Structure prediction request, 302 residues.
Amino acid sequence: MYKNFALAALAAHTGWKEWQYYDNLGTFMLMAIPIVFLYGICIGSFLNVVIIRIPLGESLIKRSSHCMTCGSKIRIIDLIPVFSWLFLRGKCHNCGEKISPRYPIVESLNGLLYVACFLIFGVNTYTFIMCIFTSLLICIGFIDWDTMDMYVPMLLLIAVLAIPAHFVTYLTIQERLIGGAIIAVPFLLIGEISGIYIKKKTGEKIRGIELGDTILMACAGVLLGWKAMIPATFISIFLAAIFGMIIKKKTGESKFAFGPYLCMGLLIGAWFGEELTDLYMNVFFPPEEMTYYYTSMISSIF
Prediction:
């Protein structure tokens, strides 16, 4: 089953004939998946550095990896992603202080998501772009979870990815611009209106949706296009509602970071968003009406 799925994914996205190259592709997948995973966890190790140092204002390159408790330099043998944490039993080799399990979690998560991108998109340039997008989402989500803040340069990198993506996908510039506005504009309006209302009621300068969330959706929309953004947003809101109720029940705090759920929704939207939108449109609109709908929407905006 797994082998058939992997071959079908590759055949669908590369144009290769599944039946013709069955054995060769199967061997290729068995070799490629561990390599992609190992590459992912190595990048994930750097993501841990980004997640920790950027909020602290530390350089990502000037200082070598060190224990956050005693400051001792981490040995090269202790820098092996995931495995070093297991060998050290989650403790610093110098001071014996516990090392957060988040380190191997982030590394493993990045590796697994790279494999997922590889299986979904196949062997092409777009897979590489989606892997970078995935790593950026991991950094954005974890930093927002820790600090309830987002860093605009990191968000803008997502929009920069739209430049190479434009040359390897069929999305038009109009579809990308609509994608950048279709969620970001409502988010901006909700944020502004809610900010005025909350300030009037409580005196606090708080927005219902922060500007960082709005910029994230604008940049992601430029990369993914509008058809991916609609289901991504619905999934994000659904996840935020579920986990928000859980957080409020446990802590009594109604304010929480929206970014992690946006990142999860965007990842699912990048994988399956266009297919979900097309499925919805095909159910409720005949093909002729759907074509007219798309054309009318684009022409009305531009």
